[in-house]
């Protein structure tokens, strides 16, 4: 399969905004992510080396999420997906397996979100960072 692009194995049934977000993130599908975020989304995130904040969907998709997953990072599979509710706020956890020039990795994120009119209007996300897999 030299030269072919391998698509990530992701969830097969997609119903909720949270599930669509995880699939779009795994594919680094910027148009789909833009469609899922409210234009004035209230976003804050924490990665191992930085705190992130924005109230602009385009900035979240292009600058923040775009830097979390670089062009050379390939998500091969969604290893885990779980969602639940904290009263009126949705909690979603997801774990990706992938590879890049440094080898295989696993990365996990937890997010809390509010969906308004079918789009994510409020989100807080926490990332484990890339964990190398031997």
Describe the fold and architecture.
- Helix 1 packs antiparallel against helix 2.
- By secondary structure, this protein is an alpha+beta fold.
- The chain contains three helices and seven strands, in the order ααββαβββββ.
- Strands 1, 2, 3, 4, 5, 6 and 7 form a seven-stranded mixed beta sheet that branches.
- 23% of the residues are buried.
- A hairpin with a 2-residue loop joins strand 1 and strand 2 (50-54).
- The chain starts with 16 loop residues before the first helix and ends with a strand.
Q: Can you give keywords for this protein?
A:
134 residues; 7 strands; globular
The share of residues in helices is: 10-25%
Question: What is the 3D shape?
Answer: globular
What letter string, H or E per element, gives the SSE order? Answer: HHEEHEEEEE
Which structural category fits the helices and strands? alpha+beta
Q: What's the average pLDDT?
A: 91
Strand content: over 45%
What's the story with the biggest beta sheet? 7 strands, mixed
- Report the span from N to C terminus: 23 Å
> How many alpha or pi helices?
3
Cα-atom radius of gyration: 14 Å
Low-confidence stretches: none
Number of strands: 7
